[in-house]
Amino acid sequence: MPGELTHSLWVATLETLYMTSVATVLVVLAGLPLGVLLVLTDRGGLWERPALHRVLGTLVNVGRSVPFIILMVAIVPLTRLLVGTTIGTTAAIVPLVVAAIPFMGRVVEQGLREVDSGLVEAAIAMGSTHRRVIFRVLIPEALPSLVRGTALVVISLLGYSAMAGAVGGGGLGDLAVKYGYMRFRTDVMLGCLAVLLALVQLVQWLGDGVASRFDHTSPHSGRAHD
Amino acid sequence: MIELRGISKVYRQGGREVSALQDVSLRVDPGEVFGVLGQSGAGKSTLIRCVNLLERPTQGRVRVNGKELLSLNPDELRLARQGIGMIFQHFNLFSSQTVAANVAYPLEVAGLPREQIRARVAELLSLVGLSDKADTYPSRLSGGQKQRVGIARALAPRPRILLSDEATSSLDPETTRSVLALLRDLNRQLGLTILLITHQMEVVKAICDSVAVLEQGRLVEQGKVVELLSRPGSHLHGLCYPPFTTGESAVLRGGQRVELSLSGEHSTRPILSTLARRFDVDAHLLEGSLERVGEARVGRLLFELTGAPDAVSQALAFLREQGLTSEEAAHAW
Ligand SMILES: Nc1ncnc2c1ncn2[C@@H]1O[C@H](COP(=O)(O)OP(=O)(O)OP(=O)(O)O)[C@@H](O)[C@H]1O
Ligand SMILES: [Mg+2]
User: Fold this and answer.
1) What is the CA radius of gyration of chain B?
2) Which terminal Cβ of chain A has fewer Cβ within 10 Å, N or C?
3) Ligand 2 centroid to B39 CA: how many Å?
4) CA distance A108 to A117
5) CA A65, A69, A70, A74 torsion: positive or negative?
6) Residues B214 and B302 in one domain
7) Final residue in a domain of this structure, among B238, B267, B300
């Protein structure tokens, strides 16, 4: 690969990292409260609101069932409103975030549901407020699975970002399509794939590592403290 | 200290109604260890969860520490709960937090300053003998150690009442004994009032002053453990002493089968040797037990009396006179 193309690959990698990391931060910020709300409002939850729960659940399901390509096109007006343009890496972040929030919401919901209800009960019996139950019990207890779930979301954001790039958003997907597909530069295509693969591996490895560091549920897991 | 009046609880499950408690009333006095004994599904957990309103009764009144819990607003209820400790069958320790952090939790809820929390946690861990485990995670502890942490956590904000939902049911007999001994000590040293539920008679005999027997959501009996155990015919007596396994046909000497229940002063008198000396009869032991329950000793004996027919009937009359055997189980064959 000539130097110029290596440089392009480097720039595309940075663009992908930019899209994915900004999107990840926004997705976590929105997905965490969404997941918490899904658990709280459910029947038997701390803040039972069946109607709200149904509405949220339906929105999440709709969000998750729309293919990313279609979603990207459908929310063009929203993207233009927020970013002022619909092409470029920053514009691509909008559909990425919209697509991944429902996914993150479910990940958080599932993680929180795995927390032993006995722990919540113990916390309530000790006179905890709901806020304390959420932040001092539910989230810390679910942390390992929240971290693993977030890694999963980041990996799918990497995939989506490649797709978003391919329709003018920049990043590795864009590069792969421009050179690898339209100009038959197989080496560029393979380069893009290799970088994506490495990123996916890295995220998975980080996720597993961090999660098991927080995991103290079995005698042999977690960081030794004694 | 704790007073339940006419508590009923109906669970609704998909159109079906399950009545878990029906018109249960009980009263636990300050400083008392009160046991609720019942089989699986009798409603024991439901009952104890009504005491701190983890479960809201469908009907009835709950008075704890002088407060009518059902009329408190959420903030007041949270405050009231800080004065009621609770321990659980499966410990319910926070797995993501160290032992010290678990014990500190209710103190944070109570809003204590950090230095006071640290001091109190150290004090509690030494009280339950786990000072060296402060920075360990619960998953690395044995069941008995976990329950000790549970006890330390429950007692951290100095509650005057401890609720125990089958706290020893998942422990082995040896560990059960040590945890019960700890509860007994806490009861005596701190004047802690304990309401515990259990399906194990051993637990009732080991530490309870009073007991209530729960059957299918209803209380069928309530009273002092020693009194109920010394009264043949009580539910507790029936549960503690199932019929003797020595069948009637096992009596082979052609003598007289006699059942004695022993309690109070009788339990310390030399009854069998008295019989032998005064009436010239022999007592052949078949089955029986005598054990300590609290400060008292209670038990029962099954034996066979042999000797001259006159002597045997005189001996029987003596036993009846002494109130040792009221039963007509003592019949001849
Ligand atoms: N949340 C609930 N919803 C519906 N039914 C319930 C609920 N909790 C308890 N029950 C029912 O109420 C009855 C009493 O249950 P409870 O848990 O109080 O019994 P228990 O005496 O504690 O039994 P165990 O010794 O098995 O713990 C049972 O028939 C049970 O199925
Ligand atoms: Mg139970």
Assistant:
1) 24
2) C
3) 9
4) 16
5) positive
6) no
7) B238
Please check whether residue B307 lies inside any domain of the structure.
yes
Distance from CA of A226 to the nearest CA of B (A): 6
Q: Are both B153 and B15 inside the same structural domain?
A: yes
Please provide the DSSP assignment of B168-219 as one string.
TTTS-HHHHHHHHHHHHHHHHHH--EEEEEES-HHHHHHH-SEEEEEETTEE
How far, in Å, CA of A53 to CA of A34, rounded? 10
**Predicted confidence (pLDDT) per residue in B239-261, tens digit:** 888 888 776 666 567 778 888 88
CB distance A118–B90 less than 8 Å? yes
Residue B39: partners with Cβ closer than 8 Å, 6 or more residues away: B199, B215
| The two three-digit tokens of residue B53, written as one number | 């309103």
Ligand of minimum distance to the alpha carbon of B21: 1
- Residues of A (196-215) whose Cβ lies below 8 Å from B: 214
pLDDT in tens, A5-41: 889 899 999 999 999 999 999 999 999 999 999 999 9
Phi first, then psi, for residue A193 (nearest 5°) are: -60, -45
CB contact at 8 A, A203 and A158? yes
Residue for token pair 């009637």? B248
Show the ligand 1 pocket: residues with CB < 6 angstroms: B 11, 13, 18, 20, 38, 40-46, 199
Please report the domains of chain A, with CATH numbers, ordered by start residue.
3-214 (1.10.3720.10)
Q: Are residues B33 and B121 in the same domain?
A: yes
> B45 CA distance to ligand 1 centroid (A)?
7
Residues B58 and B202 reside in one and the same domain: yes
Distance CA A71, CA A92 (A): 12
Q: Measured between alpha carbons, how far is residue A159 from residues A16, A155, A156, B108, B109 in Å? A: 10, 7, 5, 44, 44
CB-based contact B137:A225 (threshold 8 Å): yes
For B312, the 3-state DSSP assignment is helix
Q: Please name the residue whose Cα sits nearest to atom 29 of ligand 1.
A: B41
| Residue-wise pLDDT tens digits, B155-167 | 999 999 999 999 9
pLDDT digits (tens, 9 = 90+) for B25-56: 999 999 999 999 999 999 999 999 999 999 99
Give, as one character, the DSSP assignment of residue A166: I
Tell me the CA distances in angstroms from A136 to A16, A31, A132, A161, one per residue in order: 35, 18, 5, 34
Read off the tokens for B102.
């678990």
> Domain range holding B326?
253-331
Q: How many angstroms is it from B231 CA to the middle of ligand 2? A: 28
Q: What is the pLDDT of residue B330?
A: 42
Alpha helices (runs of H) in chain B, residue ranges in sequence order? 44-51, 74-82, 99-109, 114-127, 143-155, 173-190, 201-207, 225-229, 235-240, 271-279, 309-321
Check if B140 contacts A (Cβ < 8 Å): yes
**In contact, A196 and A172? CB cutoff 8 Å:** yes
- Closest listed residue to residue B155, CA positions, set B66, B97, B99, B82: B82
Q: ipTM of this model?
A: 0.89
pTM across the whole model: 0.89
**Is the residue at B219 inside a domain?**
yes
Tell me whether residues A128 and B109 touch, CB distance under 8 A: yes
